[in-house]
Amino acid sequence: MADIIKLEEIKKVYGTVVKTEVLHGIDLEIEESSFISIVGQSGSGKSTLMNIIGTLDKPSSGEITISGRQTNKMNKNELAKVRNETIGFIFQFHYLLPEFTAFENVILPYRIKGLKPTKEVIERAKELMDVVEISMVKDNLAPNMSGGQQQRTAIARALINNPKIILADEPTGNLDSDTSSKVFNLMRSLNKKYGTTFVIITHDRRIAEETDRIIEIKDGNIVNDIKR
Amino acid sequence: MKLAFSIAMRFLSSSKAQTLLIVLGIAIGVSVQVFIGSLIQGLQKDLVDTTIGSSSQVTITSSEEDNRVADWESIISEVDSLDLPTELTALSASADLPVFVDSGDRTLSVLLRGLQFPESYAIYEIDKRLVEGKIPENRGEILIGKGLKDDLEVKIGEEITVFTPDRTVETLEIVGIFDLGVASLNKNWLISAIDTAQSLGNLGETVTSIEMQVSEVFRADENALVISEALQNPRLQITDWKSQNEDLLSGLNGQSISSLMIQVFVIIAVSLGIASVLAITVVQKSRQIGILKAMGLRDSATSFVFLFQGLALGVVGAVVGIAFGLLLIIVFSTFAVGPGGEPIISISLNYGFVMLSAIIAISASTIAAMVPARRSSKLSPVEVIRNG
After folding, report:
1. Nearest alpha-carbon partner for A35 in A4, A9, A56
2. Domain presence at residue A179
3. A32 at the B interface (CB within 8 A)?
4. Which ranges of chain B does DSSP label H, i.e. alpha helix?
5. CATH of the domain at A119
6. Is A55 touching B (CB cutoff 8 A)?
7. What local confidence, expressed as pLDDT, does residue A199 receive?
8. What's the pLDDT score for residue A94?
9. What is the pLDDT confidence band of residue B354, given thresholds at 50, 70 and 90?
């Protein structure tokens, strides 16, 4: 299969006076529709790598190609469009907008496109909410949902624009083990159902073991790349 | 844009207490502005009315020694046909001459004013200020001021003898008593029809002045200039009230400036309040902004979220503030009344001014929101995500 994400010689340096290089020239290709994990200790550079893949952060040097498009030379608005249409984010702390209901949160990425939600999109949102089993709390504001419900809402939100890639940063880090495995299985089934590429960042080995490919990062370098 | 607006509304409605406080702040500012502004305007209008409301605002007199304006009827019709900067509300001729009245033990010097009726009503409102009797119609009939009547101890129907500086003596019949509301005029004026004064002063067909009032009093000087250019008559002199009341004008000016100062400071205080509250909101909502940006919301759209908040706060604050201000005005006019039940100051409600206050408040709120809007557009989603 074609590579959906391609990193070449990615370096990231923080600081201007005291320079700290957190990524030392990462080369990485991720295939379309794959279900992979990036593991590493905290401070290993995995979150930085995810932010760079997600175009939230810019590398100090190196090239990134996402879905066939080089993002290095894009301006902020073009990057925003790439994020909106190609990438779905799932964060550890859910990051739903507490002022909006579950349904409104799910539909937000579509509204960010600047379009009025069509009947199809509303149907799709409902379907996604059924899949992640949050239909019964669809009119609840984010703070009135359990942690698992919030995380599942975040997953539905990440999927609403039919993105090619889902970047999940410690998606189960804040959940108990039962809910955690539910969320994980959900992501797995979505990967199969929609063919969405999942990149899961975790420090939890057990979760990583369940993915198709484990990339281990240590001190800003890829030290292990295990495919199964 | 629509999304930014609906996010702005959600942000405002999710922190109701904060929104209410800031709206109240703007509303109080606007109400103070509307109230103080209307009060000062009313005060100025009252002052101008009492000072120049019942006198000539633009006057044509003679520059010759004899003080006579000849051919006055054609001057009036010429002035009347001119296209003036501000419309004339009154235009009439008067023949004035100083006369002496014998009151038994002493001689009083008074001014006999020969006026045109009804043309001069618009200036002096003699018809309304007549306390007793009737308007003089025939030669030899006069009106006497309330004060002078008391001094001379005379009644309607009685006759008084007057003599002029060139010793013409004539007996005039009192047909009415006026009260112009100004004690010095009530003591010093006799009013007659214009022909009585003309014959007594041997003026013939001439008058001593042509008097005018204008609709916009503060533009009287512009009219004076146009008239003097149009008439081109070196024997005539055109004066306006502004050049003769510089003290009053500078007083009015001072009042306007102080009211403007109050209003400017109120706006500054309100704007600072909005800017600081919204700046705090940016910090409070930085998580939401970060996540929205991560999902692809443009920097400019996040700015609009805050601009819309400022705009909405301004609009609601202005509307509530105007309602408060009007309420204050009603309360003031109802309770701050003189002994006769009439308001101490008749507040003038100028809709243009109220609208202007609203527009200023709304634009100040929106401009104040620019600072937090800029901050929000610079916020990087990575920081929010990294810091959890």
Report:
1. A4
2. yes
3. no
4. 2-14, 16-52, 72-81, 121-124, 126-129, 146-152, 183-188, 194-200, 220-231, 241-244, 246-284, 286-294, 299-335, 351-368, 370-378, 381-387
5. 3.40.50.300
6. no
7. 92
8. 63
9. confident
Q: Over chain B, what is the mean pLDDT? A: 86
Chain B residue numbers touching A90 (CB-CB < 8 A): none
High-pLDDT (> 70) share of chain B, %: 99
Residue A60 falls inside a structural domain? no
d(CA B204, CA B206): 6
- How many domains are contained in chain A? 1
* Residue of A50, A108, A115 best to disrupt the B interface, most CBs of B under 10 A: A108
Look up the domain containing A180 and give its range: 34-44+76-227
CA distance A31 to chain B (A): 23
Is residue A193 a part of any domain in this protein? yes
Chain position carrying tokens 């105007």 = B322
Q: Single out the residue of B250, B187, B243, B237 nearest to residue B208, CA to CA.
A: B237
Tokens in use for B66? 């004899």
Q: In A, which residues are within 8 Å of B298 by CB distance?
A: 76-77, 80
- Residue range B181-209: mean pLDDT, rounded: 89
Beta strands B88-102; B107-115: pairing state: antiparallel
The mean per-residue pLDDT over the stretch B180-196 comes to 89
- Taking an 8 Å cut-off on Cβ atoms, the answer to whether B297 and A99 are in contact is no
pLDDT block averages, 10 residues each, chain A of length 228: 84 85 87 90 84 88 86 86 88 82 91 86 87 84 86 86 87 77 84 89 84 89 85
Beta strand A213-218 pairing with A221-227: antiparallel
